[in-house]
């Protein structure tokens, strides 16, 4: 696919989906910029490990995705952004009438507004370079809904809409914008929830996975971070040059229901 030497900025990428995507990009020879809101030694060590393992340039840049200014500064500090993967996100579950206003504001800021700010900062770089890819990590909840997740569902639907607008504004340029909509993905965060859920429902691990976590995922299998990274790579490849303004579901059939 000859993507070696291009630079990808992946937001929210010191763990989980973001780190998995960044790793797959590094394997393909793409220079990567990792990001989160912390600034720990282990954050920088993740970037150093990718550089060492795959022979690419890799950096970690701290930026709080709830701040529009810091989102834009992340892209400017990166210095180049051929591939932008907007992945940062948080979650909170509560009925609408009990949903804390501060949680709503934080989820909209981090899950949706951050993608607007990073995209606005990255597009001029892509236009100057003559090539670019915007890949937004949305969710099955960008296409459907669940109760008690009002802010998350609203934000992810917004990400899908932003993706379409970005695609239309760049349709006559060698720049594409697409959204990936994962269902449940096996990450350390999800794995950590399993023991408590087993206790709560009095179920075995296998029952929790099939009947609780993957209740809406017909395949009854988690997606993996490697699969999501591969999907990002596809969208960056020449094969996807005319794929823009759309969503790709990686959800085991969830949104087919």
Automatic annotation (TrEMBL):
PANTHER family: 3-OXOACYL-(ACYL-CARRIER-PROTEIN) REDUCTASE, 3-OXOACYL-[ACYL-CARRIER-PROTEIN] REDUCTASE FABG. The keyword Oxidoreductase applies. Gene3D superfamilies: NAD(P)-binding Rossmann-like Domain (3.40.50.720). GO terms for biological process: monocarboxylic acid metabolic process. Pfam families: adh_short_C2 (PF13561). Keywords: Oxidoreductase. The keyword Oxidoreductase applies. It comes from the Bacteria. Its EC number is 1.1.1.30. PROSITE patterns: ADH_SHORT (PS00061). One of its GO terms (molecular function) is 3-hydroxybutyrate dehydrogenase activity. Belongs to the short-chain dehydrogenases/reductases (SDR) family. This is 3-hydroxybutyrate dehydrogenase. InterPro entries: 3-OHbutyrate_DH, NAD(P)-bd_dom_sf, Sc_DH/Rdtase_CS, SDR, SDR_fam. SUPFAM superfamilies: NAD(P)-binding Rossmann-fold domains (SSF51735).
């Amino acid at each position: 696919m000859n993507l070696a030497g291009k630079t990808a900025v992946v937001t929210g990428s010191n763990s989980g989906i973001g780190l998995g995507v960044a790793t797959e990009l590094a394997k393909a020879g793409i220079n990567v910029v990792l990001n989160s809101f912390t600034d720990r030694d282990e954050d920088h060590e993740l970037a150093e490990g990718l550089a060492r393992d795959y022979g690419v340039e890799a950096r970690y840049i701290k930026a709080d995705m709830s701040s529009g200014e810091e989102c834009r500064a992340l892209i400017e500090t990166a210095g180049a952004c051929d591939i932008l993967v907007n992945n940062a996100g948080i979650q909170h579950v509560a009925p609408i009438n009990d949903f804390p206003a501060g949680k709503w504001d934080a989820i909209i800021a981090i899950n949706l507004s951050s993608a607007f700010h990073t995209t606005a900062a990255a597009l001029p770089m892509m236009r100057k370079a003559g090539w670019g890819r915007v890949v937004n990590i949305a969710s099955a909840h960008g296409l459907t809904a669940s109760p008690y997740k009002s802010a998350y569902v609203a934000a992810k639907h917004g990400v899908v809409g932003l993706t379409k607008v970005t695609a239309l504004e760049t349709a006559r340029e060698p720049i594409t914008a697409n959204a990936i909509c994962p269902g449940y993905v096996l990450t350390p965060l999800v794995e950590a929830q399993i023991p408590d859920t087993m206790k709560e429902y009095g179920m075995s691990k296998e029952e929790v996975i099939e009947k609780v976590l993957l209740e809406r995922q017909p395949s009854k299998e988690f997606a993996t971070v490697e699969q999501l990274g591969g999907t990002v790579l596809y969208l960056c490849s020449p094969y996807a040059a005319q794929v823009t303004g759309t969503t790709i579901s990686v959800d085991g059939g969830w949104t087919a229901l």
